[in-house]
Amino acid sequence: MSQLPPEVSRLIDSALSEDQAFNDPTTQALVPEGVIGLGMLRAKAYGVLAGVDVAMAVFQRVDASLKANVLVDDGSPLSPGSDIARVEGDAASILKAERVALNFLQRMSGIASDTNRYVKAIEGTRSRIVDTRKTAPGHRYLDKYAVRMGGGYNHRQHLADGILIKDNHIQALRSQELGLKDVIRLALARASHTIKVEVEVESLEEVKEAVEAGAHIIMLDNMPVDMMAQAMGIIDGRAVVEASGGINHESVRAVAGTGVDLISIGGLTHSTSALDISLDLEFS
Q: pTM higher than 0.85, yes or no?
């Protein structure tokens, strides 16, 4: 991610403004201008790196004269003590940027690390781990990038990315006396030829209806594993199958064992734990 898109640059500026990085009375009172320091970004836990270019951009947004050197690429495994990057220059500038840079780096690396745990848990199966739109507001581009760095795949980037018929859409149209098949066929008829139609189902009867109506993708929502296996037999390769809802590290292998194509996990981005990464400021 060496070339940051405009939305990420705006997000960096917003985060620096929120933290009042250019109005830091502690640093202004205690650290004289011209003191040169070396900031070493280091991992303090095992995980997968994501967001190092974003962190470097934060430092250079605060002070363009800072020299940033990335030592480990995004997607690389980390262990306690791993050196990630170094930032050299005005110590006051490094201190002003430190927290915001770490906030981005720790969150993104946490997402990548958790995603990688899921990916490793289903190795040898046909399934893929995918994310959802349950991202932190404003952070979707970065959250989904971090999922990819952990070996996962992205679901829809936004609402315009495809048609996903969920329970509330179905209920709204049932009030107009339309059944599930009618809803799916209406979506297929009105969709652009470039857009796939996915439908969320909760029972085997709904699975049958979705297949008969011609849905491109069928999401098995909160189904027990044995029901998922039955659903796979009904679908029989006639649609892409996604499993979703309540899947965790303990259950994901069994879900993958049913043969589903996709396993979507909202917790990758809505409940992530930050990876422990620190900045150690050193002086010669």
A: yes
Question: Is 44 labeled as catalytic in the residue annotation?
Answer: no
- 238 catalytic, yes or no? no
Element (H, E) at 38: strand 36-43
Catalytic residue among 166, 205, 212, 280: 166
Residue tagged active-site, from 44, 134, 156, 208: 134
Per-residue pLDDT tens digits for 225-265: 999 999 999 999 999 999 999 999 999 999 999 999 999 99
Chain mean position to CA 154: 8
Q: Out of 131, 143, 221, 242, pick the active-site residue.
A: 221
For residues 42-67, one letter each, b for 16 or more C-beta atoms within 10 angstroms of the residue's C-beta and e for the rest, the string is bbebebbbbbbbbbbbbbbbbeeebe
Asked: is 120-270 a CATH 3.10.20.440 domain? The reply is no
| Residue 144 is a catalytic residue | no
Is 206 a known active-site residue?
no
Kindly report the CATH number that applies to the domain delimited by 6-111+273-282. Answer: 3.90.1170.20
